[in-house]
Amino acid sequence: MENVNLCQLGETKPPMTSRQAPWPISLQTQDQHWAIYSSDEIDILKKSIILSHSYRPWVFKLASFHSMSFCPCPTSSSIITRCSVTQFTHPLLYPSAPVIAVGSLTRNRALWKPLRTSLILASCRPQEAVNFPRIKHVHTSRIVNPRKNDSSNSCGNSSSSNSTIITRAKARINHFTTSPQLSASNLKMSSTSTFKIKGLTSLDLPSDKIEVEVENIEKGKLLLLKHGGQIHALTANCTHYGAPLVKGVLTPDARLTCPWHGACFNITTGDVEDAPALNALHKYEVFEKDGGVYVKADEATFKENGRLPVSSCSVAQQDQKVVIIGGGSATIGAVEVLREHGFNGQITIISKEANLPLDRTKLSKALIPDPEKLLLRPQEWYTSVSISVVSDEATSVDFTNKTIATKSGKSIPYTKLILATGGTPRHLPLPGFKELGNIFVLRTIQDVQAILAAVGSTKKKEIVVIGSSFIGMEVGNALSKENNVKIIGIESAPLERIMGAKIGRIFQNNLEKNGVKFYMSASVDKATPSSVDPSKVGAVHFKDGTSLPADLVILGVGVSPATAFLRDNPSVTLERDGSLRTDEYFAVECLKGNNSDGGSSDVYAIGDIATYPYLGPGAGQGGHSHVRIEHWDVAQNAGRSVGRTIAHAFSSNSSVPLKAKSFIPIFWSALGGQLRYCGNTMNGYDDLIVKGEPEAAKFVAYYVLGETVVAVASLGMDPIVMKCAELMKRGKMLGKKDVIEGVDVLKVDLA
């Protein structure tokens, strides 16, 4: 931000020097931090301030501070690093209270009008302050612009005489109206109270993490953490699927990783660091008093599933256009971080799916047909953060003129483009599989609905699943309770290519207990019609002449990168598998030199279509350093990475190089037990070391290449896999010798 200026609205006095003023009077940026210079104390009953970065303001009431620092929003929506937040206010409840509005001005720009887009209704939690959108009408009495070189009454200094600075402002909010989507009457205002922690007399914690209960609050649990000499109080459960975070992994750099699926949170703010969580954790003030331990909180937060990192945003930069093609987890990861990190330009999602981004992992695991139960964010959220969702299909991209053509005939311009089109399920090019009905793939909610319609209410349907990897195993397991399910695989054991035959047979045994029958090392020859209805499948035949009866067939034979619309594009070079090769920022390599600015990245690829540099253990050992991973969590983390990169490119700090953020692939599955997996075997492995009791569904498997552990899988041994992922990320993972000797990975220091 080149210039930061200050005006006072409400009952005001003429500007004074910072030493004289009883309220903050001057603000400037130092090292990209907000620095507020004021007297030692502020009257918290009458004064409040608005802090703004990239047109994302928040209101705080502050107790006391001197030269406190506020971290700007590129790394978090609202972080207060060195001041005590005690109470919040807003102009509706306290209309006579002075409000100091801080705004940014750029060269040759008219004065920034905070009341137009940033009047705040603040809850008692800064992260959930509600932006009162689009104040349409405000009466002000007087705004004075400075004469050149006249700074006698200035509240801020300009680095350019062409900038407009508010030097003195007297204004009363006499009347205003709001946009129809939000009014004062339907806003839920928060209130902070003090709550006692049950059974705790001091903050001298017995361990680095303990879960505690709040007195007189049903299901009122909190997590207390000891880190760096400080105690932090946070939401007790992961906001993804509710895992107890007390069993998570706490790192020296203040990261807390969920023990189940690898979601990661910053314990100083509660913000999300890694997927798959979308909501951040609530953060509470915790303190000792009269022989007890207390927290300050809004009671409602104890029952909430975390907080929204961003609840509202108005587009301020119409010329900045980010377009995302695709509507999956990679997309939701990108748009969440774009808004959270302060990008206030246009965001458009082009998706050919009939629904908003949803939790696709539940399609194969649970066959849920209702999209409303799977949506990652409701329509209201996209509206509130100014994200346009276009239900259409991209047919081509003009990378020179930066436009996207769609099936409906639209031409959509972009400044930055994110390709997140996902995968296209493969079909079998064998007789009968293209012609006959009741043969399904599983990718969308419509696929689930079609499968369930074919199963119908009649029990014990004959269901043949072709493919013994994750999709085939999961859908077979989900349908096995009420039907006769048979799984066909070309490998000697399910999941052999990824997990190895030894581990694959463990999951085969789990599903066989549920009645699933397996036909492994099998070669399918054809599908033939039903004698009852010749238009539908009736049997699946093997090359050895045997056959299986089938009322319906589900194909789980992999996916191909959904890049057909780019296949004939002269600007694009696809990899052999149809994917796009990217750099560590997920910028498409073949398009870097196509940009108007001579090489910076305007096009990114994420998710199933991206082949990207792998930075985990074993990368390059077998000659391969790039990898393409088809998993929901990896796609979302890639989206988060690109969102961060693009937001940085449009920020005032864009001249400072941004280090690429790496992550270790994590995936999971439910196959008669909760499988966890981290790492990658892109270059293979030459040894598999299994610890524990596989027959009791409690084990850890270490995949070793040479002396390097390149991947880890577990069943019933949380949080070992998540601890291994953190060790891999830091280059501190155990070696083969350590594993053989029985070193306890949970006791290995992360520092």
Automatic annotation (TrEMBL):
Name of this chain's protein: AIF-like mitochondrial oxidoreductase
UniProt keyword list: 2Fe-2S, FAD, Flavoprotein, Iron, Iron-sulfur, Metal-binding, Oxidoreductase
Name of one Pfam family that matches: Reductase_C
Region forming the signal peptide: none
InterPro entries tied to this protein: FAD-oxidoreductase/Apoptosis (IPR050446), FAD/NAD-bd_sf (IPR036188), FAD/NAD-binding_dom (IPR023753), FAD/NAD-linked_Rdtase_dimer_sf (IPR016156), Reductase_C (IPR028202), Rieske_2Fe-2S (IPR017941), Rieske_2Fe-2S_sf (IPR036922)
The keyword GTP-binding belongs to this UniProt entry's keyword annotation: no
Species in which this protein is naturally found: Ajellomyces capsulatus (strain H88) (Darling's disease fungus)
Residue ranges occupied by any Rieske domain in the UniProt entry: 197-295
SUPFAM superfamilies, A to Z: FAD/NAD(P)-binding domain, FAD/NAD-linked reductases, dimerisation (C-terminal) domain, ISP domain
Record keyword NADP present: no
Record CDD domains: Rieske_AIFL_N
Cofactor(s) needed by this chain: FAD
Record family assignment: Belongs to the FAD-dependent oxidoreductase family.
GO cellular component: cytoplasm
GO molecular function, one term: oxidoreductase activity, acting on NAD(P)H
